[in-house]
Design brief:
Helix content is about 40%, strand content about 20%. With about 230 residues, the chain is an alpha/beta fold. The protein folds into 2 domains: about 5-120, 3-Layer(aba) Sandwich (Rossmann fold), CATH 3.40.50.2300; about 130-225, Winged helix-like DNA-binding domain superfamily/Winged helix DNA-binding domain (Arc Repressor Mutant, subunit A, Orthogonal Bundle), CATH 1.10.10.10. The strands form 3 sheets. It has a 5-stranded parallel β-sheet, sandwiched between helices. Strands 6-7-8-9 form a 4-stranded antiparallel β-sheet, covered by helices on one side. Helix 2 runs parallel beside helix 3 (about 60-70), helix 6 crosses helix 7 (about 175-180) and helix 6 (about 155-165) packs across helix 8 (about 190-205). The chain starts with a strand and ends with a strand. Mean pLDDT is about 85; it is low at about 120-125. It binds calcium ion. GO terms for molecular function: phosphorelay response regulator activity; transcription cis-regulatory region binding. This is DNA-binding response OmpR family regulator.
């Protein structure tokens, strides 16, 4: 069971989803407008938010940005706009996944479970830490230290680093990262990967020009390896 917040202004969709998600065992709160949703999110701290993009008082993307400024609660965006450019912008703005309308409650529930698994509950509590040089990735606690100092990562940054660490020493393609970490099909959206890699580099105290752990292999992908 997860504690969900559904932000959706269409009463018919809201009622249907509320009932369907509750029938699937979730505890669901609902808000019919963006500001009400933001207040509920901050007060209730749900496990996950399902956010409709077309809201009466504020664009859903704007709400997503406001939410991300103060919270890392996973967000699944419900959108009628299925263009890839829009999807990439949403993922870059901090959405964890998206569903394109019309979608079924079963589809949404599958996405919710996948995001929550990715967000922490999917890894075994006994999974060993991965060490690459001075980098230590605790898979169970989802924490990272570099030379003994904690590195604060967003869930997505953690997933990216974790995926690279599982293949340390090997070049991982952006296509693989998009499908495994973002779970979206490839198609020119690799800028998303570049952006997150640059944030990760900054947090690890390195740059693409002077890499220590994260090495770009031009035209192929990226490799995590111990500093020489
Ligand atoms: Ca709407």
């Amino acid at each position: 069971m997860a504690r969900l917040l559904l932000i959706e202004d269409d009463p018919a969709i809201r009622t249907t989803l509320l009932r369907a998600l509750r029938e699937r065992g979730h505890a669901v709160a609902a808000a019919a407008a963006a500001m009400e949703g933001l207040q509920t999110a901050l007060a209730e701290r749900p496990d996950l938010i399902v956010l409709d993009l077309g809201l009466p008082d504020l664009d859903g993307r704007e709400l997503l940005r406001m939410l991300r400024a103060v919270s890392r609660i996973p967000v699944i965006v419900a959108t009628a706009r299925d263009e890839e450019s829009e999807m990439v912008r949403l993922l870059d703005a901090g959405a964890d996944d998206y569903v394109v309308k019309p979608f079924t409650a079963a589809q949404l529930d599958a996405r919710i479970r996948a995001v929550l698994r990715r967000d922490g509950t999917g890894l075994s509590e006994t999974a060993p830490a991965i060490e690459v040089g001075g980098l230590r990735i605790d898979q169970a606690a989802r924490t990272v230290t570099l030379d003994g100092t904690t590195v604060e990562l967003t869930p997505r940054e953690f997933d990216l680093l974790h995926h690279l660490a599982l293949r340390a020493g090997q070049v991982v393609t952006k296509r693989e990262l998009l499908s495994e970490v973002w779970q979206v099909p490839y198609g020119g959206a690799d800028k998303t990967v570049d952006v997150h890699l640059s944030w990760l580099r900054r947090k690890l105290g390195e740059t693409a020009q002077e890499p220590r752990y994260l090495h770009t292999v031009r035209g192929v992908g990226v490799k995590l390896s111990e500093p020489a």
